[in-house]
Amino acid sequence: MTTSDFKKGMVIIFQGEPYRIVEFQHVNPGKGSAFVRTKMRSIKLPKQIEFTFKAGETIELADMQTMNAQYLYAQDGQYWFMITDNYEQYSLDAETLGEKVKYFKEQMEVMIVMLDGSPLDIQLPAKMIFEVTEAPPGVRGDTATTVTKEVTIETGATVRVPGFVNAGDKIRINTETGAYDTRV
User: What pLDDT is attached to residue 144?
Assistant: First the structure.
């Protein structure tokens, strides 16, 4: 893999240790060779570093496995998951999971990402269906423009949706962007 393949959240081996790419920027100055400026967070230690790679430099990708898992429950800032094949349970903290916790429903299926036998992250389904629990009423006759409003879904998260969505409706949300997709 080369630096042109970098993606946010990718885990690479840097100086013998696994690091997650937090941010990266391809820079092509008018004079001199191109480079990639990165911010990386260590997987094993609580530290973040910045490093500049030469454009096209070969980087080792971390050897990760994904397994089917089921979300169980949250307790004291820890989110518990069970591997469906062998019933082993693992927990991840809210800081590691980030915005994904807004979409957790009990018993939902996810993919857990493992590195060297320990959980690293989870992958949600790309699109999920949620019930709208709270929605302000739509303004009658306001259909000339793309009117949006903020609604609350069953997990407690808020999402911007078109004006015609009401409480009780089921909507599909893109979990990668957090954007409304369609009413179901």
Answer: 55
